Amino acid sequence: MLNTSGPADDAAFTAMYEEHYRAIRDYASLRCTAAELDDVLAEVFTVAWRRFIDIPQGMERGWLFGVVKNVLRNNRRSASRNAALRMRLTATAPRHIDPLLSGVPIDTREQLAGAFNSLSERDRDVVVLATWFDITGKELAAALGISPAAAAVRLHRARNRFQRAFDSWTEVEPS
Amino acid sequence: MTTRPDVVNLLRDARPAELQPERRTDVSTDPDAARILARVLGHQPTIAATNNPLTRPVGETVELVTTHDRQARRDRRRRVAMLGAAASIAGVAALAAVISIRSPDPTPVSPADTSPIAATTPVSTTKAEVPATTTPATSCGAITDIPGGAAIITVTGEVTFSGTTAPASKVSIRTPAGYWETFADGTGNWELMVNLGRMGENSSYPIVIDCWAADRAEPTTNTIYSYRDPDT
User: Fold this and answer.
1) How many CB atoms lie within 10 A of CB A79?
2) What percent of chain B stands above pLDDT 70?
3) Mutating which of B26, B37, B135 best tests the A interface, going by the most A Cβ atoms within 10 A?
4) Is B36 buried (19+), middle (13-18) or exposed (0-12) by CB count in 10 A?
């Protein structure tokens, strides 16, 4: 089911914007620099505005997550054509987490950070969406542009790899 | 025997403070959110509360400002009537607009003042009520800076339907400085004199170009360009 209001319906768009701005900003802030954040957000919501009637109702947040990924991917492609820009666009993957995690028991902080940082970019992205953004299976599917079943499989495998990395992680002492 | 910790739960506990569960954001009290929303919608937040023409309904106010004399206007009206009939017959569908800005006076403009503005890449392209069977195509040509703020904006628009192309019936332009519209001259070319004014240092103008089909109450295409005055 699609939104029935047209793109010119500023009130409906603004309501959606207010509902999801924070989550989208937070997610984008994990994947781009602070200097880029405004431009990325403006581009994301411009796409949303232009395609407002295409956004599946109830899936707005997942759809917007997907747009963030696409916008950043496009930015990265542009950066590859410009050496100067490439230097600024280094953080397009979810950032590595700091071992000094305040909400985690001290004895597992390094282990958790090490396991997370050992994951691939794709696994980190899926795990972050599922845990830090409490995204539903359908929203994850919308964000990844794949079917809900495929999204569930991808999340399941990422979690397993994360758990295995956590269980087997051993800190390498500096020599 | 110890229980193996669930790594996902641990990671959830490690959620950074700035990513705590989202709250509904009031864009009116969040300047960052308000600024981005205004940018998306083509508004200027600093003037939105002061009768900003951009916030008016499309076509509400008509202020035809052209440099043509009365005879030229009569000719234009006659061509509009002819075009309106042609456009209705064609069953107007998609529009293409090529916009350029040139100096309103014949005084030569120095090369430094006529350099193309790289920042005029459209920040948003087509949004509109368009018949589902058509695909509007809107493109922007080079925009040349004009010193002094005033400019004549020349718009060329075409309506394409079922392989048949005809000039669009009307074009309107909304900027923070005002609203202008004019009607077709029969060739698909329009000239509108506008005063873009001065927005101050590091500001940019949202220029909204609305193209109209003869038989529609709403513009068929609605394109926003971000125009940064290099003089500021």
Assistant:
1) 17
2) 12
3) B37
4) buried
